Amino acid sequence: MEKIWMQAVLILVIGAIGLPTVAAGNGIVVNKLAVKQIPYHNPDPAAGPLVNLPYFDVQNGLRWNNDLVHTETTGDCDRVPRPVNVNGYPIYPRRTHLAKPRVDERHCLKEIDGRVTSKSVLIGVDSTDGVRWQRPMVFPSGKREFQEYVIGATPDGLVLNILEVLSPETGKTIFPAPVKEIASENRSVPKYRFTGAGQFRPSTKRFYVYDAEVTLFSSTGGLYEIDPVSDDKKLIQSAKSTLWRGHIIIEKMALNEELGVLLLAKRLEQRGPGWVAFSVFDLATQREVFEERFGDNCYCTDPYVVLGKNGDVGFSYRNQNDNNYGLVHYRITRSTDR
Asked: Alpha-carbon distance 275 to 267, whole Å?
């Protein structure tokens, strides 16, 4: 990943030549530093998928990782020669959650006594494509197991659907999953299980999770603040929909602890083309203070947000109309003159 000119794209800071600065609200200032389109191109599809995610380097430069995901084997179904599916195509079982430090998830299917089972493992990959750590994605509970999923990934922590937080550097637990005890069976089970995007705020030990259900006739849920100690679940932003029942989904999020803001990557889910958006949610006032949309009539997918230093944020998305990725570099500050 450090082969900068061979396998990554350097995003130059061009804010000095006129990209807008927006006073978003409550003293929060959003400065757009750079915009870039990156062609979607896989020179060798037979070698498997590309990472295609942004990251910040040690100098706080926003870069793009387009390395092959499977440059090494990690065991189980991730091996050479590659297993093939029923159509004879090779199986590439990994996807990347975080480009730096690199964290992948390996998902393998097995047939046992005529029944298909799945097994997922989180994998830390180092800069030389070696495996640093591996962790099975299950919560053991007596004779049962609960499947775990990643719902948030930043350099500060990996948030699982059961609200356990892991270090992306080591795979070790930073914050244990809240549990409830089943005394009669002498086992514990996860207190929470979510499917939407989530983040953890270390200073308050609270979580922020998108948990919503939108149908043709109603919308429920939205963005919640959760205190796992008191079990308090507070709705801080209701789920949003359009006149024609399109659903605005928060697909990814990150949290800047110093500024006290959530950075949201959103997508309009509807029939036909829609848009993606980057927005800033102020935790002090519990309201959204900035939003910028991209691709009003675009088949746009995979909105993603990554944190840098000094309030820098990278937002990316895939534009399937133009077959490229959009990458935007923001810098967020909070003015002392509110």
From this structure: 6
Tens of pLDDT, residues 255-300: 999 999 999 999 998 887 889 999 999 999 999 999 999 988 889 9
Q: Which domain holds residue 157?
A: 4-66+149-334
Any long-range contacts for 173-179 (C-beta under 8 Å, 24+ apart)? 175/200, 175/202, 175/205, 177/139, 178/228, 178/229
* Share in percent of the chain as helix, strand, coil (round to 5): 5, 60, 40
What's the total number of domains in the chain? 1
Compute the distance between CA of residue 282 and CA of residue 65 in angstroms, rounded to an integer.
30
Mean pLDDT of the 309-335 span: 95
Task: For the full predicted model, state whether its pTM sits above 0.70.
Answer: yes
Residue 120 resides in a domain: no
Q: What 3-state DSSP class applies to 120? A: strand
Residue 112 lies in a domain: no
